[in-house]
Amino acid sequence: MPLVVVTLLGALWVFRLGWIWAHLDESALLDHYARLYVAETGAGASPSDCVGRPGEQAAVRLVISCTTPQGSRRVYLIGRFGGLLDQLPAPRNAAET
After folding, report:
1. 67-89 residues labelled b (16+ CB within 10 A) or e (exposed)
2. Is residue 45 part of a domain?
3. Cα→Cα distances 2→8, 9, 15, 97, Å
4. CB 3.0 to 4.6 Å from 50: which of 15, 18, 34, 89, for a disulfide?
5. Does some domain include residue 6?
């Protein structure tokens, strides 16, 4: 019985990851992280400051680059399931976000 429960839970977990993978598209990711960029940057920032491109590393699904009104760049590395892997450079108030 414990093996059945563990197998069932594992199958549900794999199904959930597959569901996320199939229903999460790049435009939704770009929109989400562009809104995060605007919230972090504040005045003068716009979602149109951001562009996305496919990741070149195995674990990176999408690389989103945003150019701030001051001319600096903020880069978000997005993982296969939509999570933030890394942010270069981190905003000054990263601990607050």
Report:
1. ebeeeeebebbbebebeebebee
2. yes
3. 10, 11, 20, 41
4. 34
5. no
Contact residues for 80 (Cβ-Cβ < 8 A; gap 6+):
21, 59, 61
Question: What pLDDT is attached to residue 72?
Answer: 87
If one counts the domains in the chain, the total is 1
Q: What is the pLDDT of residue 82?
A: 85
Regarding beta strands 84-88 and 60-67, do their DSSP bridges make them parallel or antiparallel, or are they unpaired? Answer: unpaired
Residues 5-59: tens digit of each pLDDT: 999 999 999 888 887 777 778 888 999 999 999 998 888 899 999 999 998 888 8
Q: How far apart are CA 69 and CA 72, in angstroms?
A: 8
Distance in angstroms (rounded) separating the CA atoms of residues 89 and 75: 7
The 10s digit of each residue's pLDDT in 54-90 is 988 888 989 999 998 888 899 999 998 888 998 877 5
Residue 20, domain member (yes or no): no
Q: What range defines the domain where residue 62 resides?
A: 25-96
